[in-house]
Amino acid sequence: MASAEPLTALSRWYLYAIHGYFCEVMFTAAWEFVVNFNWKFPGVTSVWALFIYGTSILIVERMYLRLRGRCPLLVRCLIYTLWTYLWEFTTGFILRQFNACPWDYSQFDFDFMGLITLEYAVPWFCGSLIMEQFIIRNTLRLRFDKDAEPGEPSGPLAMANGHVKTD
Fold first, then answer.
1. N or C: which terminus of the chain carries fewer CB neighbours within 10 A?
2. 150 falls in which pLDDT band (50, 70, 90)?
């Protein structure tokens, strides 16, 4: 077990980016169904979402590690939601300067400059709860065994989670 090391920040960023990208596609598909009853479930996103989600969740991971013993879960989720709004506004504002912002909330009642909207506060809050409790906590538990052969279990890691591989 001595060779098992935590994932690097770049590896975690990659997992967070892919997770955010997937969630964005699924959310937009579900939103399209709920609002327009579109049975095709067309989920959309932008390649910018990889950078936006990967970086944001990596920053939230740092927040989680600093706040987990200091404030209750719901307060942390509120902080993450506020961070999400700040990050969404900032990245949207920058991308808009290059005519590259993939979202526009101008049609919502409680939008600010079309870059953020209060209508998404509850989904962002719920997403932050899921992000901390499942995505970040489990990603931080992942380990890389540099001595293992690809596709083969090695030593004590083969017995992880109570499962033992037998031939």
1. C
2. confident
Residues 6+ apart with CB under 8 A from 161: none
Contact 32, 41 (CB under 8 A): yes
pLDDT tier at 153, thresholds 50, 70, 90: low
What is the C-alpha to C-alpha distance for residues 15 and 21, in angstroms, rounded to an integer?
10
pLDDT of 90 higher than 60: yes
The stretches of 2-120 forming alpha helices (DSSP H) are: 9-36, 48-67, 73-97
| Residue 156, amino acid | P
pLDDT band for position 145 (cuts 50, 70, 90): confident
Q: At what angle do helices 73-97 and 48-67 cross, to 10 degrees?
A: 150
Angle between helices 9-36 and 48-67 (to 10 degrees): 110
C-alpha of 36 from chain center:
26
Give this prediction's pTM: 0.84
What one-character-per-residue DSSP string does 29-63 give?
HHHHHHHH--TT------THHHHHHHHHHHHHHHH
| Domain map (residue ranges) of the chain | 5-144
Short-list 123, 116, 50, 129, CA closest to 85: 116
